[in-house]
Amino acid sequence: MKRVDDFRLRFGDKEYVPIMIGGMGVDISTSELALEAARLGGIGHISDAMVEDVSDRKFETTFVKDKTKLYKHNILNMDKSLVQFDLERLAEAQRLHIGRTMEAKKGPGLIFVNCMEKLTMNGPKETLRTRLNAALDAGIDGITLSAGLHFGSFGLMAEHPRFREAKLGIIVSSVRALQIFLRKNQKLDRLPDYIIVEGPLAGGHLGFGMEDWKDYDLHTIMAEILEYLKKEELVIPVIAAGGVFTGSDAVSFLEAGAAGVQVATRFTVTRECGLPAKVKQEYFRAHEQDIIVNGVSPTGYPMRMLKSTPAIGAGIRPGCESYGYLLDATGNCAYINSYNREVLANGGTDKGISIMDKTCLCTHMRNFNCWTCGHYTYRLKDTSHLLPNGEYQLLSAEHVFKDYQFSVDNAIALPELEAA
Ligand SMILES: Cc1cc2nc3c(=O)[nH]c(=O)nc-3n(C[C@H](O)[C@H](O)[C@H](O)COP(=O)(O)O)c2cc1C
């Protein structure tokens, strides 16, 4: 019986344990978590979602405070078109977050950054160009382009000296999205170094419709993508993501032709994960009926989360002067429209309003109040011990990583019981 450790993910002449820990914004996949994956010979992701805020928390910079001060006069104005990111400062935050992580890297693995392209930041092209190039400046091993994949993104960093050296990958959920991406990038003569195929059971935003995500299955999508690549004679490692919960699940994808797996949910209850301890316990305690897919994200993509997420129904004033990561190129965000509608219906005040259809994702993700999670979050309770105090024992990232790497027979190794 095979185990994950019998396989290797190859990039050129280098080999890695074929386990990637997926990017989880905002700073849920911390540097500490990514560094553990790299130390153990796999691949870890940090995320550049809301990087200025992440930098402020980690390095005591004042990007958010300064931006808030600059645009304070606009807080009551629902036209946010003038709230712009200073590209120099954005690059500085990105270089700090990524540079410090790379300096701390030890071991044979790699660190990638997950860049969600739906973070349009009131200037989609220029802010993305800045993020990507600053990530390369800071020495990141690889960049994974995700959520809202922009077909011209490779072009935005084509002039960077590391464009052909760093690993560049994309996340797709269909063979069609892959075909379009490859067609649009033909003239750059630069293929992705890896393709993450994300199925409908993943956490975060989903690349499927609100109603039809249940009709899709990762094995089938991956088989279609492998067949397409074979037909086109393209040799690109394919990484399976979404619902890979045990080492045996991973082996089933590796045996079917995947070069690796990307996993996330099982790491949400590790000590290295950035979620607050209280939220980790919510994830442990969740039952299947507590996990929902809804449309509250202003991005327009369905998102999976715990039903008890505080962000659902909250009626806070949009926080764009401080954050504004989801403002489109015209200074709008779907949450602003919902907020305006409810304020109008409430006689012009936001006192006591509840907004159900959209949420202020920046503020709530920043405060860890949007509990996005993978479908199998309800199985996390089977991966640890329930302690006498009613809490579940947190895991170490190393324990979970090695469980994926070495387990067989769908077994999940429990950690050594901590002394009370
Ligand atoms: C809490 C959480 C947050 C996530 N955030 C992001 C994100 O910011 N960007 C992204 O591309 N994927 C995100 N994902 C998806 C993961 O990177 C990964 O591809 C997927 O969840 C793997 O499936 P699994 O969670 O069943 O192991 C997130 C997943 C979780 C569980």
How would you describe the overall organization of this protein?
This protein has a single domain (4-406), classed as Aldolase class I (TIM Barrel, Alpha-Beta Barrel), CATH 3.20.20. It has 420 residues and is α/β, with parallel strands linked by helices. It has an eight-stranded parallel beta barrel with strand order 3-4-5-6-7-8-10-11, surrounded by seven helices. The chain has a three-stranded antiparallel β-sheet with strand order 9-13-12, with no helix packed on it. The chain has 13 helices and 13 strands. The structure holds flavin mononucleotide. Flavin mononucleotide (FMN) binds at residues 22-25, 28, 47, 49, 114, 116, 146-147, 171, 198, 201-204, 241-244, 262-265, 268, 372-374, 376. The site of flavin mononucleotide has 30 residues, from strand 5 and strand 11. Keywords: Dioxygenase, Flavoprotein, FMN, Oxidoreductase.
Summarize the structure.
With 420 residues, this protein is of the alpha/beta class. The protein has 13 helices and 13 strands. Helices cover 31% and strands 13% of the residues.
